[in-house]
Design a protein that fits this description.
248 residues; alpha/beta; TIM Barrel; eight-stranded parallel β-barrel; 43% helix; binds 2-phosphoglycolic acid
């Protein structure tokens, strides 16, 4: 599998920011990177982002409802994201697990909804600072995989896991290389135990949390790192393009 370099714009993105998507799409067209790329934007921007990208770079959503349709005011279904032109969706981001109190079961239901709609799912997991200090990082992430990843997604083409330690998101603090290596090896083992070697070996495990142009190359070179989920540095095309180039 090629690296997947995915942008997570979070609650940023007005029409004025479409120029950043144009700049990433133009760079991807010009340089034809070996990495797969994806820009996940707020639901309101998806169809315009898809128009701007015009097939040069796929666009994704940042969350979806667990149900296909119904009386769920304010929710956006996976099918709606797909209808707007999205090809992927992030589920279970730690900000949603924290602020919206999403449980592993809720995340699994959303991932299943993404699968039903034909979207690739990026399922996020990660430990808190306290969990790491208490020696519970590995068990926390193992439990999140067991609870948030549905059986139906056992396919490297439609599933990626993003390991994002909460204390590294938006903070500029990074785990040590050996901590990333240890965690990604554990996630790989969880996936192969659960889904078998054939599928489990190839599901991409992205690292996320303070990925920048300056550290991307080093992170991507680590074993079992299959790409990056990039927040802050994805909002500026120059930085995101530099991270895509780091995957070469
Ligand atoms: P960050 O965010 O790159 O700004 O740390 C990553 C994420 O939350 O996906």
């Amino acid at each position: 599998m090629q690296y997947l370099i995915a942008a997570n714009w979070k609650m940023h993105g007005l029409a004025a920011q479409l120029v950043e998507i144009e700049a990433v799409a133009a760079a991807v067209t010009a340089t034809r990177p070996k990495a797969d790329t994806l820009i996940c934007v707020p639901a309101t921007l998806i169809s315009r982002a898809v128009q701007t990208a015009s097939g040069r770079i796929p666009i994704g959503g940042e969350d979806c409802g667990a149900e296909d349709a119904g009386a769920f005011t304010g929710d956006t279904s996976a099918g709606m994201l797909k209808d707007a032109g999205a090809s992927a969706v992030i589920v279970g981001h730690s900000e949603r697990r924290h602020y919206q109190r999403e449980t592993d079961a809720a995340v699994a239901a959303k991932a299943s909804a993404a699968w039903r709609a034909g979207l690739m799912a990026i399922i996020c997991i990660g430990e808190t600072d306290a969990q790491r200090r208490n020696g519970a990082a590995i068990s926390t992430c193992g439990d999140q995989i067991a609870g948030s990843v549905p059986e139906t997604l056992a396919d490297p083409g439609i599933l990626a896991i993003a390991y994002e330690p909460l204390w590294a998101i938006g903070t500029g603090h990074m785990p040590a290389a050996n901590e990333i290596v240890e965690m990604h090896a554990h996630i790989r083992q969880c996936l192969t135990t659960r889904f078998g070697q054939a599928a489990g070996k190839h599901i991409r495990i992205l690292y996320g949390g303070s990925v920048k142009p300056a550290n991307a190359r080093e992170i991507l070179a680590l074993p079992n790192v299959g790409g990056a989920l990039v927040g802050g540095a994805s909002l500026h095309a120059a930085d995101f393009n530099a991270i895509i180039r780091a995957a070469e």
